[in-house]
Structures are given as structure tokens and as C-alpha cells.
Amino acid sequence: MATLTEIATLEEKYIELCKQHGILPSTAILSAFFEAEVKKSRNQRCIMNLYVDRVKYDDYHPLLELSSEINTSEVQGIDLFVRSSCSLEDHYALSLIRSLNQKLRVVHLHDSFGKNFWRDVFFKGLSCKVLNVRSLHFHKLNIVGDFSQLHTLVLDNNRIVGFGEGCFSCMPKLTYLSMCDTLVSDLWTSAAALLKLPSLKELRFQIWISCSDSSSIKSQSSPSSSTRDDKNTFIESNPPIEADIWEVVEQMDPSLPIEETLHSMDFSYKIPEHDDLGSRISLSSELYGEVIMREEVRKGKIQYVPKDVSPVGSFTRKFGNVGLKYISSKASPICSEKHYRMYMINSLPKLKVLDNLAIRKSDRDRAIETYSANFEDLPYRRKKESVVRVLEKRETRSSIGKSQNSYKRSLCAAKMGSSASPLLHSLPFLGSGIYQDDDNSQLSPRQFEYHPLDPSLMVFGTLDGEVVVLNHESGKIVRYIPSHGSQSSILGLCWLKLYPSMVIAGSANGSLKLYDIQKASSVVTTNSHVTSGSVTFDDFDQLTSVHANSTDQLFLASGYSKDVALYDIGSGTRLQVFANMHQEHINVVKFSNHSPFLFATSSFDKDVKLWDLRLEPSRPCYTASSTKGNVMVCFSPDDRYLLASAVDNEVRQLLTVDGRLHLNFEIVPRVSSMNYTRSYYMNGNDYIISGSCDENVVRVCCAQTGRRLRDVTLEGNGSDFSMMFVQSLRGDPFRDFNMSVLAAYTRSSSVSEIVKVNMLAGRDSTEEEAHGLRSFPSNSMGG
């Protein structure tokens, strides 16, 4: 057996190497050797603390040359820290870390490095047992390298939004994971990523700081022996993991392996030293584990909550006669999702602690009930099967009495169950100069509609007043109609169903035209004199919405007024203006899909109204009110329901016959009066999709039960990843679980995109696989 190099020998060799390079030895490195020698003399584990941010360029080469000796020395582990900006260039710092990889124990890294550094770390891995990464500006986390020894991962205070398909796939021993104060918000993709961690026992996206219930404690403790705040409450120092990890290392027992050290620290319940409550209360076994992770909150570090400010969230747990009140701190957005805790507990059956609160059997039982009542694991409540198995059943007819629709549902469930992240595909004409005579121009979509008969076509209107017909499967522009006169955004579009080459377009300036796309140009050009076979109608000032009836004889227009105008398509005339139909302006007007006389209006006056042209619309058939201003309304494909969307995620489904509430989808609001929400149907009457202009999420819910199936998070390009929001959306009428979303960026310099979403294809699917999954048409499957 080879003799291990002693620490004193390492120090001597380091000094000799410095002499050879003509430099003075680094005090930081000498201090590391000295501290390790002291630990050895005390019969403690010989751990060396190396602060890379203190290593200068001159120190680099001697230390690098010494690394092979360190790896074969009596040093039992290296705790490596980069706490601030590092003077070493990225490749030097990386090579130094790699040279010491065999001995790495704790690694704390601050994001003072470039993307290539992080790609190397995340794709190749490290052999450390604790990794703490701060201030990352990566929006999508994709740690796929070999982290087979990693036990604890701290990702607090980072701008992480989501996870790559392979993230966490090589961390078999990871037990503790903290992602407090990140931008993670998606329950589905987060749970799917976390399921790749077979040893995960403790997870947190927020910190519950406990304040004991004064009413229950006051009778059991002496005021003279306790420290209280002005509300007579006891403050318990729950340890946030985002505190400096080198403070944690100082508290680790150097005589124990790191797993045992962390375990003993994490499962300790600490009563403040000045409080004798612990001697007065017999704490139940459930109480141990309520406050876990590390002792990192020190005096003065507990978040102060003023009397007049409500905390992010709070609740009280009872332990016998003792009530403990908990206040949320450092919460990531995912914690605001409805039923977040129950969803995570149900989805991660091996988890023992969530957000530093122990998971009890009663929590598990309640999580199963809550999940079943509020979520769909797979569409149509199907059980998970492989695609091959479903196809075998269909071909062999092994399931007696099953219809083709039943097989189709099972196939959809199998495909969706194979990937948590759907395929997102921006239409390729966007973001590039496409004009024949102006390479610097771009098309900026503002509204769009699928063609009613041709599965490959959609029309979109632009901010500059152009109308474009696109083959959205190939990305090829089929027809182009330039803006006429002053450029004004196209806000209303409607295809005629009986005359499928005709489309109505309404502009913000009130212009209303009927175009025949067969007569439009097939070349994108700035020539405004190109013919388009248009019919011009009387203007409707400040227009926002147009819609034709089921017989293509009439259409309605609404806008920033209390009025609605009725037009005759055949004659090109305006027949009537219905005045003062609402108390405030009418955002959207929609005809029924099957009755040529019924139509609905939605307004910021908080009302949705149903009207009948046969009754002379002086009085509505009924009025249904919401608590906020209504952004839009639409009929279900079979006209049984009205889907009303109000500001800030208030989405309700009404019975068309009398306006009674059928379903409230109970989407969590953002508490924003400008968060305009839009919702439409998908898969016939089966599902609804809903998105809002302050959010980058599309929510998919069952239209019959209200259960949430998935959230689809939009992803921008590069630095705009988290800057997208939903401006409009439509379900694909020909393909199950496909939709398109008009997504805008908060940056004024960025062009809006039409993003196609295929929920039956994974994000890593090939183009051929995605095309195959998009190819089968959709028919309504009922409830």
C-alpha cells in the first residue's frame, strides 16, 4: 500500500514550487495547509478549505502542479469556495477544480464565471458531496454530468425557470435539494425532473419560519424565562439553506462522514438557547423534522415582518396543546400554485420533508384525495401505458367493446405520458427579414386564426395592418395582403366557413375588409397596390373584435365602445348599430357556432350577456356577472357552454341555456388588474386552454371536471427566456392536444412569435417524430 503524503510535506513542496516559479507563496494556500494540520493534530477529519477566489494567477501553476500530490496525500477532503468574483480566468479556475476533483467534498460556487465554465461543470460533473451554486443566470437548468457522489444540492437565489429533459439524471445519492427564491413555477416539469432522483428525501422551494402560537405557549412557559416580541410570540430560528455554506461547514462534525454530519444537523429541532420551553413541553416525534436542514439563521437574520404587512403565506400546526405558526420566506413562484404542497407530496412518494416540514401519513392521505379531485395525471383519466401496447390492443382488438375514440384517447394518454415537456416550435418566418424588396423588415403578428377546413393553413394579421396566410406545417407564406392606407394593427380576424377562401379583417383604426385570399399575392412585398379582391365595409371606430355567424350571412363588430354593429356580408352594408349594450366597452363579441341568431358579448363592466337577433337586442336573454372585468367570451364547439375569461385568471364555464355557472376553474390570480386572461376550447369540448398577458404559462384543464391536466411554459430565445407572455391562443381544431400561442416579449425590440405547441411530442422529439404525432386529425371526444 502506497504511503500517503503528509500535510507538512505538501506545504514544503508547495513552497519549493513557488521558488521555482519565482513567486512568493500564497497566504491563502498556506492557511489552508495550516488549518488542515491543526485538524489532524486534534484527531479530526483532515479537511482542507481552499478559497479559489483568493488564488491569484501567479499562484495557479504551483498549486496545479501540486494537485497530484494532494490527491495522494492524507488530506481526506477539500472544501472549495468561490464566494465572490474570481481573479482567475474561467479555464484556469476550471482546470484547478478538475485537478482536485478526487478529493472534493464541499463546493460552493458563485456565478462569476461564463457559460462555458458552467456547461463543463454541468455536463461533465464533479465528485463532491455538497454543491452550492449561487446567482446563476441560466434560465433552463440541465445538470446531466456525473454527480454520483452528490448528497446535497443548494440552488437558492438563482434565476432558474425550468429544467432540461435530462436534468438530475446522474445523481443517485442526492438526498437534499433546495431551490428557494428561484423562478421555478411549473408543477409538472418540476415533478418530472425530481422523479429522476431516487434518493431524494428532503426538498424545498420555500422556508417556513415558525412562530409559536402565543395562546398555547403562554400558559406553559414563564415570561421571565423567555424572550418575546411585542406580540408575545416566540421566534424559532428555522435555518434557511441559502445562508453561506462555509458557515455550515464550520458546524459540521469533522470526525463524521459528511452524510452523517448533515443528517444529524438537518433533523434537529432547535429551541432558542435563552428559552426553557424545551424542558416544559414534551415534543412529539412529529415535531422532530418540522424544522430541518442547517443551523444557518443566526441572530438578526430572521426576516422581519412589519405589523401592517401580510406575509407571503402562513398557517398553524397543532402538536397536542402547542400551536406553531409558520410564515413563508424565500418562496419560489411554484409555491403559489394551487395545491402545490399536495401535488408534490403525491408526485414524490419517497419524499420525507417538503419546505422544512415533515410529511406525515395524514399529509399523504390528503395529498392523494386532493390530487384526484384537482388534477389529471393523463388525459381522459387514462392509466399509463406504452404507445406500443395501445397500438397492439387496437390491432388485435383485444379490448372488447372499445370504440376507435377510446383507442385514440388511450394513444393520446400514452404519448403525453412519455414526456413532461411538450414540443414548442416557433413558426420559422419570424425573426428574419422576409420581404422581397426590404431585407430589414419583419412581420409582427398581432392576431391569428386557424383555417376552418384546411388543417395546414392559418391566417394572421400584423401590427402594421398586413394579412398573411401561412402554411403552418411547412412555414411557407401562401398569400400576402399588404396594409392599405395608414398602418394599423389587425385585431379582428374571421374566416367564412361556407366560403373558405374569404376572411374578414378588422383593424384598430376601425377599418373592416373582406378579402378573397385566392386573389391575393403569393409574394411578400411592400407594394400596397397589390390587388386582393377586397370588399370594404363602414368603419367601426376603435375596433377590437369581429365574428361571422354560422351561415356566413352576417358578422358583428365590437370595440372600445358600448355598442355592437351588425353587417350584411352579401351586400357589404352595415345593417344596424346596437347601442349601450353594456355599461363599459365591449371587448369581444361572438356568434354561436350553430345558431345564426345567438351571440354573446363580454365587457369590462364585469358582465357576459347572451343576445338573440330575433328578439331585437334591446334586452339580453340573460346576464352573467363576474367579480372582475371580462376580457373575452366564446362558445364551446357544440354550443352547450360559454367560456368567460375575466381579468387575472378568473375563468368560468357557463351553461349557454340560462347562464348558470357550470365550472369555476379556480386558477390562482397574480393580483394584477392588467393581467388580461384569454381562454379557448381544445379537442372539441373536452379541454380548455387559458393564458394571461402577464404570464408565460398556458394552463390546460378538463372542461367537464375542471381538473388541471398540464401547464405549458413558454420559452423565449436566449436572454428572453422568462420574458414571454401570452397575448392570444387557439386550440388546433384538427389535431388533439395541439395549440398555437401568440407570444409577445416585454422587450419592445423583440418581435412577437406564433409558437406551436404539441403536447403529444416531447421537447426533444425529432422533426419527423413531431410531424407524425401532429398528423392525425381531431374529432370531439365528448366529456
TrEMBL record:
Superkingdom is: Eukaryota
Taken from the record, one Pfam family name reads DHU1_N
> What's a single GO BP term from this record?
cellular response to UV-B
Per the record, where are the segments of Low complexity compositional bias?
Answer: 215-226
Q: Name one GO cellular component term.
A: Cul4-RING E3 ubiquitin ligase complex
- Segments of this protein annotated with the region Disordered: 215-235
| Domain U2A'/phosphoprotein 32 family A C-terminal: from-to ranges | 337-355
| Record's keyword terms, sorted | Repeat, WD repeat
WD repeat windows: 579-614
Protein known as = U2A'/phosphoprotein 32 family A C-terminal domain-containing protein
What organism, scientifically named, is this protein from? Capsella rubella
